[in-house]
């Protein structure tokens, strides 16, 4: 649909088309218009194709871009012809080039749509005609954007910053002093004194300020003498050395004075003169060094205070300026007068708090980043960024004037974007845990291997299991590193549960075959006939005067029962239906005094059973004859074996192996190479036993797994023992059972049985058993009863008094006794105390917790280039009444830099615990550092002497975590650089900087460069930015680059 043109007299023109050029419009009346892009009063000179379109004057004509299409915004223009009757109003449909991106405005310009076109204008903070815009550098004029210190230009705006020691005022321009003493006492050990732009630490009477300008060193009485000379000449320990700031020992017993950063040494080589480099010279605004010292001045919008340092805002003179301007233009043009009377940035900054810009409609105020313009259009108010999405901070957000700071929870570190927090993986650091380390968000935990106990948060010490109920051992408990073992007295051996003891049986028995039940118990034992079968049973006993029962593997010989050295008639070959061999002993009567003690007589009894049947009967020999012949063979075999009884060994072949039955006691002169024991085989020159869970099969000459329903908990065995309760196969475990406990059916705590398996009995009154599978119960002792049958701990015993933690119940005296030093007890009603793990001990008796077990060893590693010292038991509390000394003696031409990330010493003990660093052990020697209190803010300093003697001492009072202090030695050529860095207050100014000195990884990287400067180049610029915040890099760049990358 077209648009219409309206004219006088009812003449209506119809807009037939809108050509893309936007230059021509066609009317139904035939009138021809040439549109030049102006919206004004126009006249039609004719109706032919050559008709010209003219326009009348209009003060507010705006040039618009030609129409390119017939869409979007509708605008109207009045058109006048030469004839009054040809007065038309035609309507043109416009295009919004701004919305459709058809404009060519600059990136930093605003696009405003107009009738049939658009216009470009630069954004605030930029200048240009709209198609080209350039950033306005508000900081380049002499007013520096109104900033009293530094002005930082940013695209489209600017920001004021303040020198160290100052903070931005709420107006965003002025700088006010920061009182550093309000936070953590400024890091000062004693007294903090605030000054304009800086602060100063001072010490109490009897102390003097150390080189790090924060901690105080006790002045010895010797050093207070008038002469101040001793064995080392004039000493810096002498308060009369005359140095205003820092004293350094010089050759030949003299001293040399130095000044803190920002001061210059005076001509007298003692005093220090303040410069503008320290706290802005004490000036609030501008500082200039002169021969007489810093000279202060104020920003043009301020005036000097009477103190000559502070600056006050000037009185408002805007009204006077406006009045003068009005008087001077009374008779002028109204438009000029109106413009002069309007607000202007030239007068009082247009009333703007911050940036002022003159526009055609008046002044335009704007605010820098971090501030927002208020409803009055003039005032800038600080934006609390922390109120919106926590300022983008992961953890904590702290609002500041014009900005904000992010910080992280303990255990996290702030990344270089200064907003994100990343977990510190403590497990990736050296020496975090003795054994295993498990990292968690914000923290970590240490774990110890089996048989060890955790102490001091990160350390592992051997657990003395024997200190807890004798380790559960029935008789003897022996502690070993990382484990323990139960042992038994003589005549006993260890039960399968490895804790109980059972009677030692040197006798044994071996059975082969099955003996049938006798029909008549009164039947003779040597002749029994049952119909067609006759059973001949006999037995024989052999005696060895001196020897022992020994079932061991021997060398293989021909089959049969025979002595060790085979002879022609010394072996017996019979097919016995049943054979049973037992070996036992009994002691002889003790001999006369002076003779050897009683010896053992070994008795070997062998029972045989042979069967004869009708098949063996012949015409010449009936069954009775056969029986007699068999008896004769047996008597002959007995005679043969009896002869062998006096020989060295008996042998028996069983399960494909030749076994030694008994052995005579060897004479002292006899040395024989014994064969491998039962269940062993030769591997090279060694005998190797079958492991637990297997047995040795002689026929296969190898170890075989114990089958289902059996077990073997010992090595080198030839059989497997049947599991108890074979009637319940569901309790049986898989093959290869190495312990009887795998058979199932164990007696539970509070129960016992002869073998530790069901059926079980409850522990009787007065006894208890805390473990499963035991053969007995422990007595409460002292005649104490238990509350019930089946007691499981000593706490079930009815003691006469209830013992509190730190005590144990003595069943003899029936009193509670304090746990001795080196032990602790955290529970009520116990009859023992737990030994401290490893080499730890307690400070006193009556300890109640493992945390009171402390290692008294002084920690640390001392190297030529890097190292550290550590209080005993760190990071656990250090022990009482301990003393540690370390000596750091670096290689030639190297000096010592020390960082104390944090130190924890109790202040309630009136300096009973202290750490001191001196040149030597003499109290008169040069002292570098001394403290006796907790100091969580890190500090770095250089040693005042080429070597250091360090002492830590604690008394019997309160304890604390102590310290871990790293150090690095550096080339003495860099002495000036290092001292310039560590004495600069900006190193400790922010929490982020402080966290760097506590970050072990970052300290390691810094020390790596300091110890070996060439390593500086192995860290790329990107790596440095990722490791350290920008502020820290800015702090170090100018200092480090001067030494390592000098500009030419």
Automatic annotation (TrEMBL):
Record-annotated EGF-like domain positions: 94-134, 177-213, 423-461
GO cellular component, one term: extracellular space
Molecular functions per Gene Ontology: calcium ion binding; lipid binding
Pfam families: cEGF (PF12662), CUB (PF00431), EGF_3 (PF12947), EGF_CA (PF07645), Ephrin_rec_like (PF07699), FXa_inhibition (PF14670)
Record has Disulfide bond as a keyword: yes
Domain CUB: 858-970
Key word Repeat present: yes
Primary location: other
Residue runs in coiled coils: none
Record keywords, A-Z: Calcium, Developmental protein, Disulfide bond, EGF-like domain, Glycoprotein, Lipid-binding, Repeat, Secreted, Signal
Disulfide bridge partners, by residue number: 427-437
Transmembrane annotation, as ranges: none
One GO process term, biological-process aspect: signal transduction
Cellular compartment(s): Cell surface; Secreted
Protein's name according to its UniProt entry: Signal peptide, CUB and EGF-like domain-containing protein 2
């Amino acid at each position: 649909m077209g648009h219409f043109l309206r004219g006088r007299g009812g003449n209506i023109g119809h807009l037939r088309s809108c050509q893309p050029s936007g230059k021509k419009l066609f009317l139904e009346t035939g009138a021809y218009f040439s549109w030049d892009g102006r919206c004004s009063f126009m006249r039609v000179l004719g109706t032919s194709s050559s008709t010209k379109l003219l326009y009348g004057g209009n003060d507010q004509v705006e040039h618009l871009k030609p129409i390119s299409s017939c869409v979007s915004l509708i605008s109207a223009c009045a058109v006048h012809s030469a004839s009054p009757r040809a007065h038309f109003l035609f309507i043109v449909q416009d295009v919004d080039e701004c919305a459709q991106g058809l404009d060519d405005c600059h990136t930093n310009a605003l696009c405003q749509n107009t009738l049939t076109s658009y216009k470009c204008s630069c954004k605030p903070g930029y200048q240009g005609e709209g198609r080209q815009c350039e950033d306005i550098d508000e900081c380049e004029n002499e007013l520096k954007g109104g900033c009293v210190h530094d002005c930082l230009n940013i695209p489209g705006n600017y920001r004021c910053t303040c020198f160290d020691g100052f903070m931005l005022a709420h107006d965003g321009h002025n700088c006010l002093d920061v009182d550093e003493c309000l936070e953590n006492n400024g890091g000062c050990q004693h007294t903090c004194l605030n000054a304009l732009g800086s602060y100063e630490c001072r010490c109490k009477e009897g102390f003097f300020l150390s080189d790090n300008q924060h901690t105080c060193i006790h002045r010895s009485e010797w050093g207070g003498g008038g002469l101040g000379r001793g064995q080392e000449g004039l000493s810096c320990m002498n308060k009369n050395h005359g140095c205003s700031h820092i004293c350094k020992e010089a050759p030949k017993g003299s001293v040399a004075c130095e000044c803190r950063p920002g001061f210059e040494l005076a001509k007298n080589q003692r005093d220090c003169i303040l410069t503008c480099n320290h706290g802005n010279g004490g000036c609030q605004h501008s500082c200039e060094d002169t021969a007489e010292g810093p000279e202060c001045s104020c920003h043009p919008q301020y005036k000097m205070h009477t103190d000559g340092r502070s600056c006050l805002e000037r009185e408002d003179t805007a009204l006077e300026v406006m009045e003068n301007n009005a008087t001077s233009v009374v008779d002028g043009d109204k438009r000029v007068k109106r413009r002069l009377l309007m607000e202007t940035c030239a007068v009082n900054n247009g009333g703007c708090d911050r940036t002022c810009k003159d526009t055609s409609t008046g002044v335009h105020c704007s605010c820098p980043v971090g501030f927002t313009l208020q409803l009055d259009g003039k005032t800038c108010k600080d934006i609390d960024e922390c109120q919106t999405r926590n300022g983008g901070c992961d953890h904590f957000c702290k609002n500041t004037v014009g900005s904000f700071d992010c910080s992280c929870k303990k255990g996290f570190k702030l990344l270089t974007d200064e907003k994100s927090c990343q977990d510190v993986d403590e497990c990736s650091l050296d020496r975090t845990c003795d054994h295993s380390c498990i990292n968690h968000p914000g923290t970590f935990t240490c774990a110890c291997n089996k048989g060890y106990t955790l102490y001091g948060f990160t350390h592992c010490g051997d657990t003395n299991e024997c200190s807890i109920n004798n380790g559960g051992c029935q008789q003897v408990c022996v502690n070993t590193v990382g484990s323990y073992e139960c042992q038994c007295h003589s005549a006993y051996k260890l039960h399968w549960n490895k804790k109980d003891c059972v009677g030692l049986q040197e006798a044994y028995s071996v059975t082969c075959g099955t003996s049938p039940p006798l029909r008549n118990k009164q039947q003779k034992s040597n002749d029994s006939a049952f119909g067609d079968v006759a059973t001949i049973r006999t037995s024989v006993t052999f005696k060895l005067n001196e020897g022992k029962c020994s079932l061991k593997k021997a060398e293989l010989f021909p089959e049969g029962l025979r002595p060790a050295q085979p002879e022609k008639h010394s072996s017996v070959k019979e097919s016995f239906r049943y054979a049973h061999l037992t070996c036992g002993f009994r002691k002889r009567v003790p001999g006369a005094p002076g003779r050897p003690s009683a010896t053992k007589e070994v008795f070997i009894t062998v029972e045989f059973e042979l069967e004869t049947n009708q098949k063996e009967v012949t015409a010449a020999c009936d069954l009775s004859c056969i029986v007699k012949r068999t008896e004769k063979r047996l008597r002959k075999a007995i005679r043969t074996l009896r002869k062998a009884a006096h020989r060295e060994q008996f042998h028996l072949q069983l399960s494909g192996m030749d076994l030694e039955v008994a052995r005579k006691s060897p004479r002292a002169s006899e040395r024989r190479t014994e064969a491998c024991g039962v269940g062993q085989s030769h591997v090279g020159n060694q005998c190797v036993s079958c492991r637990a869970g297997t047995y040795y099969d002689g026929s296969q000459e190898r170890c075989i797994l114990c089958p289902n329903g059996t077990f073997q908990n010992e090595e080198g065995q030839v059989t497997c023992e049947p599991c108890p309760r074979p009637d319940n196969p569901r309790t049986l475990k898989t093959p290869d059972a190495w312990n009887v406990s795998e058979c199932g059916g164990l007696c539970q705590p509070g129960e016992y049985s002869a073998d530790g398996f069901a059926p079980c009995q409850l522990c009787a009154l007065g006894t208890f058993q805390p473990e499963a599978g035991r053969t007995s119960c422990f007595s409460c002792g002292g005649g104490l009863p238990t509350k019930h049958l089946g007691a499981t701990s000593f706490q079930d015993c009815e003691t006469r008094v209830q013992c509190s933690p730190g005590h144990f119940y003595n069943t003899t005296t029936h009193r509670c006794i304090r746990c001795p030093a080196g032990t602790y007890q955290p529970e009520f009603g116990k009859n023992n105390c737990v030994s401290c793990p490893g080499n730890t001990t307690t400070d006193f008796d009556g300890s109640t917790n493992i945390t009171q077990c402390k290692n008294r060893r002084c920690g640390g590693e001392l190297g030529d280039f890097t190292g550290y010292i550590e209080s005993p038991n760190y990071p656990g509390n250090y022990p009482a009444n301990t003393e540690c000394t370390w000596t750091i003696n670096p290689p030639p031409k190297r000096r010592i830099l020390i960082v104390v990330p944090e130190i924890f010493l109790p202040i309630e003990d009136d300096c009973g615990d202290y750490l001191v660093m001196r040149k030597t052990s003499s109290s008169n020697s040069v002292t570098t550092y001394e403290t006796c209190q907790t100091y969580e803010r890190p500090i770095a300093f250089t040693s005042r002497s080429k070597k250091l003697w360090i002492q830590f001492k604690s008394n019997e009072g309160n304890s604390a975590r102590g310290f871990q202090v790293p150090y690095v030695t550096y080339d003495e050529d860099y002495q000036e650089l290092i001292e310039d860095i560590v004495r600069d207050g900006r190193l400790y100014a922010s929490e982020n900087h402080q966290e760097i000195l506590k970050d072990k990884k970052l300290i390691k990287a810094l020390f790596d460069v300091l110890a070996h400067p060439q390593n500086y180049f192995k860290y790329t610029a990107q790596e440095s930015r990722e490791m350290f915040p920008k502020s820290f890099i800015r702090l170090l760049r100018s200092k480090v680059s001067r030494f390592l990358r000098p500009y030419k």
